[in-house]
Each structure stands twice: as structure tokens, then as C-alpha cells.
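Task: encode each sequence below as C-alpha cells.

Item 1
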Amino acid sequence: MLPRRHFIQSATALFSAAALNVPLSGRAMAASGNWATWDARVTPANYNPSSSNPWGLHPRFLPTLVEANSGLKPGDIHVDAVARYLYHVRDDGTAMRYGVAIARGNLYEPGVYTIRRKAKWPKWTPTKEMIERDPGTYQQHADGMPGGPQNPLGARALYLFEGGRDTYLRIHGTPSPRSIGSRASSGCVRMVMAHVIDLYKEVRLSSTAHLYPAETVLAASS
């Protein structure tokens, strides 16, 4: 039976934008030959989203089908930064709930964003601010790090925009799944690789992502 969990929409979309289609570069096309192999590497054998847990996550962070309140727009994403949940609203009035990690301290940026790009095994480039904060960690990757299982963006990434401006915030996989449930990133929302692969298939370009403040409880118990 569908668990009766509810969550509350407390912000509305501030803008809309057309989808951004970015063609693969030659290097990305070459790397795409590894995608299936990498997907298999980060997906547990006999994977069952609701029960597979080789990462040792708290069970509440495993993907769970929940009931959404009426009025929520299908396709939208809602990130509850307090409970560390991401909800993806489905067409039938339900939502898939996933465990996530959010940014450390004041690096988390709540807001309403548009998903204007999706990418499989994307290249990662640290921002100027990240390099300035921690040059010992990030300077070596100033020119970018190719996609792959050790890339910080992981298996999939959803790119968050404000209007036509790339915010450099992402919803993405992570090679550090034990960080799920914590404040660990430099600004992005992290997911388990296998979970973000599933989410990626369902998210439509131009969907809205609502990132709620870390001080406001959005998820309610049954």
C-alpha cells in the first residue's frame, strides 16, 4: 500500500525558460562508449531501488513512493533540506522520494530554479570560488575533470538555471554515497549514483526545482 506521506509546497515558480540542448563534444562522444560500463559499476547487482543498500544508508534514504499533496505540478522537484529528501512529483499524484546530501554551511542556496540541461557522466570543473576556498583540493582540476566513476558529479547531473544564467548548482550523483543525509557538498544536491540514474530518466527539461531553506521543515509525517 502507498505510504501516506505528504509534503508542502511553500514556493511557486518564479520564471520559466526554454530547454537548452547542448551537443556532445568529440571527447564526450568518445567517453560515452564507457557509460554503460560505468552505469553497471555503480549499480548494485540485482538492484532493487527500495531495498538495495550496499552503501549502508539509513533505510529512510532509500527511494520510496509517497503520496503528493494536490496542486503540486507533475515533473517538479522539491528538495527538503531539513529532512535531506528530494521529491520528484509524478503525473499520477505520487512522488518518488530520495535521500540526498546538501551543501555545507552557507554554501547551500535555497531558491526556485529551472532544469535547463541534463548530462550523463559529465565533465566537472570547480568554480573559481571553490578554488579560492581550497586551492590544495581544487586547483589541480581548474581545467576540468573528465566524466567517470570518481568524478564529483557522478553518473548524472541536472543543471540548475535562473532564467538564462547557469547557477553552477547541480543535482548530481556522488562517488561518496556515505555523505547522503549530511551537509557535505560545495553547493550542490548529492544523490547515490544508482538513484540519480533512475531520477534522470524521469526528469524533463524545463522542469522546476524548488530548493527549500535548511531551516524550514517541509516534510510531514503521516
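Item 2
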Amino acid sequence: MNNKPLRFAHRGLVQYAPENTIEAFQAAIDHGCEGIELDIRLSKDGIPVVVHDRSLNRLSDGKAPKQICDMTADEIKAVDIPFAGHLLPHNPPVPYSESEGSVATYTPEQLEQFRKEDKRITHIVTFEEFDKWFESKTEDVTVEIEFCTDGLMKPMYEILSVSKNINRYIIFSGNDSTNREIHSVLNEKGRPDGLRVGMNARRITPENIDFIKNAGLYEIGLNDKWFTPEDVKMLEELNIKVFSNLGDYPEWWETITSLPIAAFKTNYAEAYTEWLNKQ
């Protein structure tokens, strides 16, 4: 069996622009990725913004340490995000270093090699701005929207319910309380036609299996080495697709291409594609 999971650029194609920026999303589209994964949080004034961390401290090189929830959307959008020092190299590090979330890590010496004299800057956008930008894209691309905190579903519902991109979106979270909030709002207001719902479970456990079986999920995210072929078969019988969370190393690439994995969320879409084309 030679399965080819859809390639979801994790936070965009981060070899070409800082994560969760329009430039990184455009790069993913330009390089033929079938999907994009992005993250959202809630600003102080209740506006969903496209960012993963609790603050912009890392992306701004320490110049914006305030929490996202303590900044207005306009304040967040005004922070300069430099390209220099925030682009990953083309290939995963060797040897691969795993963390709990299976994100590749680098030594300070390795990272210094990736820093270039790049004067470009970019900025965070609101999700509504992303939605309007994505509306103009005609490519067949699916977007996973990860809710990184509670309180997002009600303002997101207002945007999603009128979005022309509704059939192209999958909403989900890796937080149990946020997943339950998503389903509570959808049960109350009704699921907009075409909207798909996922869950970043990371692994199948006795604690989450009942929710998984009864939540009407389209897909579930599972971490590399944390699921088995039996898990995939069980989810397949429930008509739930499996998305592999990262696992950016060839040994794992061999695994996912031997299983009915629907999609692969990766920081290294180009390197994975090159590897795949050689097989």
C-alpha cells in the first residue's frame, strides 16, 4: 500500500515566512500544499487573531512580552514580526529531537546558522482578515483552525456563519474544555452547513474515547508514535479521518505512508514531498 496523506503546512510554510502569517500561508499554497493549519487566540477586545503563543514575545524577539489577552487587536497587529531568525531550515534537524508535541528542536548554534540579514517584517492578522484574504484563493486548499483558548467559539461562530469559505474549514482544539465549548455552541446555534469539526486528541485514551465516538468528528489529530494501526482502524470504522501531528523524520514518514492516514501536519512539507517523490 502506498498512501499519500494530504500535506498540511503547520502554521504555514515556515521556511519562507514567520509562522501564522499571510506570507507563510501564501507560500504553502504556492508550493502545492493541500492544507494549511493555523492557530487563533482572543484579543482583549474580543477579536480572534491568528497567533499560537500566549504572547508575541518569541516572534517579536522580546519586544512584545504582553499576553495576547491583554492586548487589543490593533495593538497586536502593530507589532513588527521580523523574518530574520524566524524561518526554519529546509530539512529537519539530524538527529531528530523529539518533544512531547513532536516539534523539532535546534541548538542555539544550529539556529544561528539559519539567521540571515533579512530586513523584512510582517504582522499578525485577525481571523476575519485571513478569511477575506482566503476568499480570493481559488486553489483547492483546506484550512485547519486550531482554537488555542476558551472563549473563541461565539465570536468565531459569527464569522464562520457568514464566511464564503465555510466548506474549506475544519475547526478544532487540543484543549478538552475548548472542544466542549465548540460543541456546546454548535449544539445551541446549529452547525453551519459545510463546517467540519476535528479534535487534536494527540492519543486515544479511556478518558477521551466516549467524546470521540459521540462528537460527530470529521478528523482527529494524533501524535507520532502515540497511535497504532488498530487505533486507525477503529477510527476508520467511526468514519473519522486520522491526521498525523508532525513527526518530521523519515522513519515516521514511512509509517504514515503505510497506513490509511488522511493528512500529515508538518513543519517540513517540502522535505517530506522530496522524500515521498523518491519512494
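Check on item 2: The longest strand covers residues 35-42. The CA atoms of residues 3 and 260 lie 6 Å apart.
End of task.
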